[in-house]
UniProtKB/TrEMBL annotation:
Belongs to the Nudix hydrolase family. Keywords: Hydrolase, Magnesium, Manganese, Metal-binding. InterPro entries: NUDIX_hydrolase-like_dom_sf (IPR015797), NUDIX_hydrolase_dom (IPR000086), NUDT19 (IPR039121). This is Nudix hydrolase domain-containing protein. One of its GO terms (cellular component) is mitochondrion. It comes from Brassicogethes aeneus (Rape pollen beetle). GO terms for molecular function: hydrolase activity, acting on acid anhydrides, in phosphorus-containing anhydrides; metal ion binding.
């Protein structure tokens, strides 16, 4: 599928969970980090999203391999970041000897630093650590704008301060591909990382309007009240993560599940009298042969009932409704939970 998706920009996003000492009102002992895109953003303005962005050629700089080698990482240890099955096409190729499973993790770490000032890294090798490490430093934070303006500076930051990006703490989570009917096309890999404490954040001044820490259910409640907007991938993943209200269980699940890979989600958009829907892989109505050249949204009177449902109703610009029935996710993933408004 890599060749077929040549018009899709590759990107990486990071779901960050931070442990709380006290449980929230909705009984979670952790919170998830999101950023609000500014109203001037060219993609998803005013939406709350996980930090992330487009891959840069600097993420594939061969110097990264030297940094990891000097830190004591072996080729086999880094290769362990590649899933053993259900490998999405975005991870299969690499440039200049830097494999995609490594460069896209560097991308996610770089973008997270650019957007919210959280530097996920350590001074020493961290192989086998299930929890992510972060470095808080006012001197390092002064580089946030520098890296934002020029991604090539991220490797210089790491060299200057002897920081090793904590790539092993980023666990593969999901892969979302923008439907061809939309104007901006992305092939986005999602990773998840968990902290034992809440890192200090600093919003990037131009693209980020707000930084929010909430538990998964709180985000969904705010979305249902139309107080925040969540794009479909964020809405879906929060509906899946909310099943685990204990951060230790989330860490265990993400660590055990990551080697199993993930299924690429390329939503099939259809417009009906009830509104717009996205059918996801596994739904009986999902096309067997997806036409990536079709930039139009197919129109039908009603979306048919089916034995297996895996679909999202885009009820409004603020609100999505998820429907699942007899759906069994691949790669050891959880079935998302969201209250259905009807048996549509």
């Amino acid at each position: 599928m890599t060749t077929a998706l040549k018009n899709w920009r590759e990107s990486a996003s990071l779901i960050i969970a931070a442990k709380n000492k006290l449980k929230s009102a909705t009984n979670f002992n952790y919170k998830i980090l999101t950023i609000k895109r500014s109203s001037k953003s060219g993609f998803m303005p005013n939406n709350y999203v996980f930090p992330g962005g487009n891959a840069s050629s600097s993420d594939s700089d061969p110097k990264w391999l030297e940094i990891f080698q000097k830190a004591g990482y072996t080729k086999n240890e880094l290769s362990g970041l590649m899933p053993k099955e259900n490998v999405p096409s975005i991870l299969r190729d690499g440039t200049d000897g830097v494999p995609k499973f490594l460069s896209l993790r560097i991308c996610a770490i770089r973008e997270t630093f650019e957007e919210c000032g959280v530097l996920i890294g350590s001074r020493n090798k961290t192989t086998g650590n299930q929890w992510a490490q972060h470095i808080d430093s006012e001197e390092i934070l002064e580089w946030q704008k520098v890296v934002h303006d020029d991604p090539n500076e991220f490797i210089n930051l790491c060299l200057k301060f002897k920081v090793i990006p904590d790539v092993c703490a980023l666990k593969l989570w999901s892969n979302w591909i923008t439907p061809p009917c939309l104007s901006s096309l992305f092939n986005a890999i999602f990773f998840i990382a968990s902290f034992k404490d809440t890192p200090t954040t600093q919003a990037e001044e131009i693209e980020v309007a707000d930084i929010k820490w909430c538990d998964p259910q709180a985000y969904l409640d705010l979305n249902q009240k139309k107080e925040i907007m969540l794009p479909p991938p964020q809405f879906y993943e929060l509906s899946r993560i909310k099943i685990l209200n204990d951060v230790d269980e989330l860490v265990r699940h993400s660590n055990e599940r990551a080697p199993l890979g993930c299924e690429a989600f390329l939503p099939y958009r259809v417009k009906t009298k009830e509104g717009s829907f996205s059918c996801l892989p596994g739904d009986d109505f999902y096309p067997k042969n997806y036409d990536l050249e079709n930039k139009n949204i197919d129109e039908i009177d009603h979306i048919p009932d089916s034995n297996v449902k895996h679909r999202v109703w885009h009820k409004s610009s603020h609100l999505n409704i998820l429907y699942t029935k007899n759906y069994k996710p691949k790669a050891g993933h959880l079935v998302p939970m969201y209250p259905n408004e009807s048996k549509l």
